[in-house]
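Pasting two entries for a bug report.
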Amino acid sequence: MTRFEPVTAGFDQYVERRAAELYWSAWLLTGDHQHAEDLVQTALSKTYQRYGSFDNDRHFESYVRTTMYRTFVSWWRRRSWRSELPTDDAPDRSSQDRTPDTDLHRALAALPRLQRTVLVLRYFDDLPIRQVAEVLRIPEGTVASHASRGLAALRQSPHLKD
């Protein structure tokens, strides 16, 4: 047995237990099945080596989610992500098996990425404004204004009128 096997086993168990929740957050952020999977996989691969340095999975998850959100922010700052627009065309059926097409998802996809990110962190992952600001590296006032504008946009969204 090598010194890495216990860490690997613990990490594998963590991923098995928490992958669905990480994927859900990533899907809400990206609005795309493949990008969500890529985002989770990227965050997990970036954080794998540090798993053994955390005293519990709750602290490690905070680290993983911070890495995931920062990775997402760096991705959408790149030109290739800014040029993508949500569409009503569904990808092949196999890629949607775990991704229900919801009105909430369509409403979130219509928001600017930073508003969507703030709303997901703030209301789906239940982070306080201070922590959202730290994760995204933006001022707390900016988080509050994006949350306010995003909620106002969701209230007016035709996808959520029912």
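Entry 2 (this is the one that rendered wrong in the viewer):
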Amino acid sequence: MKAYNRYFNVNRDTWNKKVAVHKESEFYFVEDFKKGKTSLNIFELEALGDVRNKSLLHLQCHFGQDTLSWSRLGARCTGVDISDQGIALAQQLNAELKLDARFICCNVLDTSDFVDEKFDIVFTSYGVIGWLPDLQPWANIIAERLKPGGFFYIVEFHPIVWMFDYLEKKPVLKYGYQQKEVIYEEYTGTYADTQSTMVSKEYGWNHGLGEVITAITSAGLHIEYLNEIDASPYKVFPDMLENDEGLFEIRDKLYPLLFEIKATKI
């Protein structure tokens, strides 16, 4: 993966800048979070169930809100992220909230160089795999870090969503479903604060569901289910409708917005 280091370095710099913006944003509601509000959504809560006394590895954890939310529910958590500023804030929140989560700064693809523990659960969610050029090393890391009988769970934006350029007011179909070429975007603001003056510079890759499934199974994991979901906790496009459950849907429901996979290590 050394060939991709220049992309990773640019992304790391952008995520470091995002931390300062995100911790002050309404999107991440840090003060309410400190008072006990969870950052977890219905999909991952239902999928993981009772996590008390389970060991949990959270990959690409940003500044650790989900990791700490799982910790509050009784899991023994480790969070990993490429952003040193994100990990520093996660550690600060962990200490302030008197929780016992552990946070490690590294590229997710290097996790096994920094973590040798095996876990009951490996978890990741919402906007994670698009930062990776090749999913097989990622899936191999997941399998390495799972105990026999443990499971991996991902809930992620559907590959169709990533085909759109949504930086303009109206989303435009622009990118390939499983585009191999790197995608570069540069824009002002972030998804958490579109009015911010920070400049986001990002390199990403699109991965179709076939690639995701093949990577996970090739790593030796058994897929329990794949669900495609036509609602999202996040308003990923303009002009979306909020349903009775507080989730967002596109008006015509022509394509799913999320997918979720649960896979076990035999």
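Dev reply: Rendering is fixed now. As a check, the viewer should reflect this: Residues 2-158+207-230+256-265 form a domain with the Rossmann fold fold (CATH 3.40.50.150).
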